[in-house]
User: Fold these one by one.
Assistant:
Number 1:
Amino acid sequence: MPVEIWWYIVLGAGLLAALVAWRLRPEDLSAFDEPIDAAHTERFSTGPEPSAQLRAVEASLATLGQSLRGTHGRQRIAALRRHLDNAFADRAFDATFTPVDCAGVPGEWVLAPGADASRRTLYLHGGGFIIGSPRSHRTLTSRFSALTGGAVLAIDYRLMPEHPRRASIEDCRSAYHWMLEQGPGGAADRSPASTVFVAGESAGGNLTLALLAWLRDEGLRLPDAAVALSPLTDSCLASPSLRRNRHSDVMLGPMLGQLVRLPGWLLQAMTWLQTRIDPRDALISPLRGDLHGLPPLLLQASEAEMLLDDARRYAHRARAAGSPVRLQTWRHPVHAWPIFNPELPEAEEALAQIGRFLAEVLPSAAPKGASGALAEPAPTPSPA
């Protein structure tokens, strides 16, 4: 092939790349890297160094990474799914777990002792939209049932790559609708919910935030409060901590550290190809949508994780839009650390703060003790 033809090919590829980069350029949100209202941002720490229990969790994650070497594609996904589903298989829970069909969406009802069936939480698990299930997240769903004093509906939304990204969004919407009028008492339990919460971590945090905006836009009943733990809020992957914290994030760093070093436009193009949704669309990037009129919302993130600024930017932008959003950060933990309860003191602190938040925003929905008296909000840990 003549040299001139190669030059035309290279020039054409360069022009195409420049066009794609321009077309996918997201709005610069760096203005929201700093607090809009510092009074609603809290920092916590268990000390100057990570706890011994956290070091043990980090070591187990490193061991998992080593065991997955040499696996790729569907084989790797299957191995990760098996590992996560069995990670807490030896736990004994006080709560009961009852399978349920939520109008076509499989899930399970989780009820701690004494749970009020009219108080309901929709819990959306994390796992990168690829792994995870109600079974894998029982350490969290059982605690949310105890914290709220109500029933938790954990759904098994459809995962990629077997299903398109939109499928998980549709399942969350359907399950929320169903939960409002369907209790945990079986097919005959058509009682309406008196109090409603939505919560999720990581990918489930993304689904939580997207669900809130959709409910508001559709004029449907909003939850009384919501909680998002280590949420992915920006599918443009433009948050500074994605690159800054790739070495300190022992969970996401080994998987995403090299990926986020790619040019931003290329990452966005890859996301678009994978999801068939523009990464700037609020459907998968809640940060980039309209954030006014949201219910009381608590965001928690680790200052060591790659998604720190996803949570930070969302909290600051939502506060600027007038929504009652609170941000709490912890100094050392791994991504989505509350799942490692009760072993991690950092997880216990985070869960105590969730209980305190829910009791403050909706005292009438606070869990009742054996005497029937409303539980007192958990004490505030020493800030960092």
Number 2:
Amino acid sequence: MEIIKIPINEMEPNEWNPNRVDPENMAKLRADIKRAGFMQPIVVRKTEKNKWQIVDGYHRWTVLKEL
């Protein structure tokens, strides 16, 4: 595994993500990221379309796109 910087618009969600977050917890995540940023990286894998598919971190990615 390696850590690299990838432009946010080159990442895409995966279709099989079973994790759902209710609006209240999403608001808490948004407020926390605004206040402190985030330390846990978004985990991705390269797709056949030369995009990066999100394996872990979809909700952080969603908040970062909004911000």
Number 3:
Amino acid sequence: APRMEIMFEGVGRRDFSYEFTFIPKSVQESIVVEEIIYAFKFHMHPEYVDENAKSMRFPSTFDILYMYANGPNNFLNKISTCFLTKMDVEYGADRFTAYEPIKGKRGFGPPPQKTKLSLSFSEMEILTKKRISQGF
């Protein structure tokens, strides 16, 4: 009789990707988009504990929640604490177009009319049956 053998090698960490498109309609909205991009870029990277020793602190972690009205949407799976592992920013659409130059948080320049932000997160823990039974 034919047989099949399988070797279990383990379960990996779950990954989650999100994509956001920003089309600011005012100077204030352009500055908010700039701040959002900067915040994710800043928090995804480590920092030196001591410049001379070259040891580093872990990057910031993220707790992602799916919300509905004023609370969590328990119909969707929970996500455990994550690291931001990849971030891509695409400025403009098929053809780059910008608004009139303004002073942003980090300098002077023309903000793009469209910005696409792609984020990839990876959970810190490998989930077990116990965590799955808790909604993860």
Number 4:
Amino acid sequence: PEWLQRVNEEGSVLDARGVVPLDERSLLAAAQHNTSLDDFGDEQWREPFQILLKALEEEADLNFWGRVYTRNDLLGHLETRLQITEWYKRHPEIEDEEVVAPVFVTGLPRSGTTIMQEILGADPRARTVKMWEARFSCPPPAPGDASPDPRIARADALCTMQDRITPEWAAMHKVGGELPVECIEFTYASFVSDAFSASFQVPSYSAWVAGNDQAYAFWWHKRVLKLLQSTGRPGHWLLKGPTHLPFLPQLFDAYPDARIVLMLRDPVKALASVVDVCGTLFWMRSDDPFSGDSYGHFLSVEPVVANLERVIGWLEQGDIPREQVQPVRYLEFFADPAAQLEQLYKGIDIELTPEALAAMQGYIAQKPKGKFGEHDYDTGGEAVVADERERFKHFQEYFGVESEL
């Protein structure tokens, strides 16, 4: 938008690094000052945090607003870390909480994971993590709290800033203070997260995350869920994260009784969409959005093919429990949602009550189409599509995924 172009033009003549520092010392001191807390907990987050900061300065090519936006985000993650650490110190009994049989919706990015989480979240027994809970977890919400919580409006203003920075974002992915979020929104504070790779060109950090076993990220993930459920157990946790797809064995290490809803959609169409989405995310902070290969394992054909082939291998070799993975083909689901929901609930071992089915069907019927605009993107010419189709052939045949192009 014109207002942001002007900000960046004016900012380009300033000492941006001096005015908006992204160094460790400055960020930690500001977070401690803002919260009046000083204990960041364990030390396992520090190495990835330091690697991320170095990559932001050397690789991300942030414009002026990008630095402002990034510093604000990093402070928020650090403050969240301080507050959660303090809350556990005050309430050590939370460590004894058990997260039982969580349901995870995953699949390639742009394969329908968001709409599936929204539909399954209409079941009154499902418990999702809302944006405001992810950003401002302490104190955890409890029955009888004053409503509306003022944190909702604050989270809404922060997350919808993306729409004001790049207005086309609203047509790609709707966000809001009370809307459910991906798991990455509450694992930022572990600093082991693909979310950073999807927001910045930070290939060195992305390489570090790819080589990490993710145990710490899942430990922090469970820490947040324990905190949020400590004031009242959910019927079942309903979680979502396309970025879990490359790490399903580690997810089952953390949650052995997890249930996976595996969304399946034409990978050629999904890949084209995620390239457009990530380009927009990078564009929010940089004038050169594709200057590197930060998110290459979700943006480039070969790594995506390899990722999908690994999933097939895990299922075939028993590295992940096949009986706890329920495939859902996007086109088949929306052709007959009632029948598909019955099959899905049976697969994830949850009773499908008449009330739950009615609520989910009602959500589907009332879901606005194109309310925030249409996401228009290029899938490439015939030769590109044909080449990608051949590469994804085994995956599509294995799972029976129809082509949409």
